[in-house]
Amino acid sequence: MGVLLEVKGLTTRFRVDKHAYINAANNVSFTLDEGETLAIVGESGSGKSVTALSVMGLVPSPPGHIERGEILFRGEDLLKLSPRGMRGVRGGKISMIFQEPMTSLNPVFTIGAQIVEAIRTHGGMSRAEAGRRAVELLKQAEIPDPERRVKTYPHQMSGGMRQRVMICMALASNPDILIADEPTTALDVTIQAQILELIRSLASERGMAVLFITHDLGVVADVARRAIVMYAGSVVEMGRVDELFAKPTHPYTRGLLSAIPRLATPRGQPLYTIPGIVPDLSRLPQGCAFAARCPDRIARCRKEKPALRELSGGRRCACFLAEGGV
Ligand SMILES: Nc1ncnc2c1ncn2[C@@H]1O[C@H](COP(=O)(O)OP(=O)(O)OP(=O)(O)O)[C@@H](O)[C@H]1O
Ligand SMILES: [Mg+2]
After folding, report:
1. Could you tell me the residue ranges of all domains in the chain?
2. Given 3.40.50.300, 3.10.20.540, 3.40.50.1220, 2.170.190.11, which CATH number is that of 34-57+83-93+173-324?
3. 98 in ligand 1 pocket by Cβ < 6 Å?
4. 130 alpha carbon to ligand 2 midpoint, in Å?
5. Which candidate, 60, 202, 269, 320, has a CA 20 to 30 Å from the CA of 172?
6. Block mean pLDDT (10 aa), the chain, length 326
7. The model scores a pTM over 0.90
């Protein structure tokens, strides 16, 4: 399968005061193949959404801007497109769904009107055709009684149903890539599983690639074959999900794995949490950003930032100690 999206050395900055910036995404590189689901995982503030927004051309500017890098979609650098060209890609070839669907749905229009609008923006269909297509999309998203649903308003639906509607709107343009930024975080566990299953089945039916963002490594195992792990704006580990689970090489990935409730500790023992907190990006330490929380750190980790390097089997890891060190 060919590479669909290649992000190369992406650095996205935010100005935090007159003289200071933070690199919310710091030299981030990854590829997404045709039809593949790739997960981006990391704690809150690790730069997952900023990476996604950078791909979508939606970094709020100011205070943000893309400082460096390339975002190649079918070989074309999206960062070189005109604002108009980028609008065509966004919501067209690349669509995004967000954590809280209520913020992306307009409360004053019916679900049907909003889906029709999304279809017509990219399709050039008549209103009647788009109306039929909207009902069809709702069916595909397994929304019961779609003919009636198109006439309802967002607040008349449950959170899970709203997320299904968002998925319909994202699919209206037949995108090649769906970016799903924590699409199930606001939902309860059963609904979460249903939405994950829906995304998975729609992606495989359509041969659509998915960039799936989550802070929950437990979810990653259900959706993606490969994952990248981010910490404080940088990619610290990347590899196949089964291998990451079987043998995490970065101490941060190990910490995230130990903190999954499903792989629970013996009864009575509290669930493991990684000690300490994500560092303040405006005051990152000189060496490895994870060093302060790392159970394995050595003196070198405080002085030098480990580069992301390739290990056996195509795995990448940014830790001096991985596979016996460098
Ligand atoms: N509009 C903004 N202005 C200033 N800083 C921002 C802005 N958006 C994001 N940041 C900063 O960029 C860093 C990364 O944020 P990002 O939203 O990408 O994290 P995340 O990994 O998506 O976290 P979460 O799991 O909470 O969604 C954070 O330190 C955040 O404060
Ligand atoms: Mg986020």
Report:
1. 34-57+83-93+173-324
2. 3.40.50.300
3. no
4. 32
5. 60
6. 94 93 96 97 94 95 96 96 92 88 84 92 86 93 92 92 91 94 87 91 95 91 94 97 94 90 61 84 93 95 96 94 82
7. yes
